[in-house]
Amino acid sequence: MLKRTISLAAAGAALVVAAVAGCGTNAQPIQVNLAASEVLAQAAQKTAEVNSYTVDAVLNATHTQEGDGRAQGRMLYQSKPELAVDLTLDTVDMGGRGLPGGARAVLQGDTVYVKVEALNKMLGATKPWIKVSLDQVGDRTQVDQYLAQIQQFDLASVTKLVTASKDVKSAGNETVNGDDTTHYAGTFPVDAAVQLLPADEQASARTNLSELKNVKFDIWVASDELPRKLTLKGQEQGATLDATLFFKDFNKPVTIQAPPADQVGELPKGTTN
Question: What's the pLDDT tens digit per position in 2-43?
């Protein structure tokens, strides 16, 4: 269920493609390329073992048909002792349609709490938060549509995508938010990257990535083999993406609480059909 709620790791990477930049093929020895690939593989393995983290993300995208889009916010994630996610988007603008006041979603186990002013007005909700059991949410509901807009990047999935790169190279050492890191740069082919995702994520990722072929990325990995920063950039057929993510607080305790009961209403009847 988590992947359904925060799988924009694939969806965000999905919005755009970057053509493979002309890198000097003789500039880096083969062993450096192999080492960089191994670092990405180790990072993907490490991120899959992370129990909690925080990510700050900014996404800017354009599309010839859907228009410009921008999302900026943060996500808290924990897998133990209970699966929980707290997503806050301060800015959400898709095709010129913004969400006044932003959006927030809190996932605890199989229950998600959504706070979006425009959604409340549309559904006639009387409380600021709407409570939904995930087994009630279907692709045809308004709630599901808004959940898709406030999804963020999942650490494990987005790190897995970059392991499909065949041209990754070390780009030097840099400090990111006080941590010493090694910078790696490359591109990954979308088709191959999607196949690395869990089976239940691939269909959605292919839909979102249907116009894309390659994605350019830069990733900064610290000595603990975990990423501190990731950027995705590119353009193709009128679609563009410029996304930046900062990861921190790996395996540190996080506080994710459901909103007060007196501020929570049930999903109005008839919206789950």
Answer: 333 233 322 332 222 221 222 222 323 323 444 799 999 999
Residue 27 CB-density burial (10 A; 0-12 exposed, 13-18 middle, 19+ buried): exposed
Q: How many CB atoms lie within 10 A of CB 260?
A: 9
Nearest by Cα to 43 from 189, 176, 221, 230: 221
CB 125 within 8 A of CB 143: no
Q: Which residues contact 222 (CB under 8 A, 6 or more apart)?
A: 176, 179, 180, 181, 228
Listed by start position, the domains of the chain span 2-266
Q: How many other C-beta atoms are found inside a 10 Å radius of the C-beta of residue 21? A: 12
Lowest mean pLDDT among 94-98, 100-104, 145-149: 145-149
Q: What SS3 class is residue 76?
A: strand
**91 token code pair:** 């800015």
CA dist 164 and 191 (Å) reads 9
DSSP bridge pairs for 104 = 88, 115
According to the CATH classification, is domain 2-266 in 1.20.210.10? no
Question: What is the C-alpha separation between 255 and 227, in angstroms, rounded?
Answer: 22
Cβ neighbourhood burial of 129 (10 Å; 0-12, 13-18, 19+)? buried
Angle at 43 between CA 37 and CA 44, to 5 degrees: 95
Angle CA(196)–CA(201)–CA(207) in degrees, nearest 5? 100
Q: Which two tokens stand for residue 36?
A: 């960089």
For residues 43 and 227, give the distance between their C-alpha atoms in angstroms, rounded to a whole number: 7
Residue that is written with structure tokens 């900014």 in the block = 58
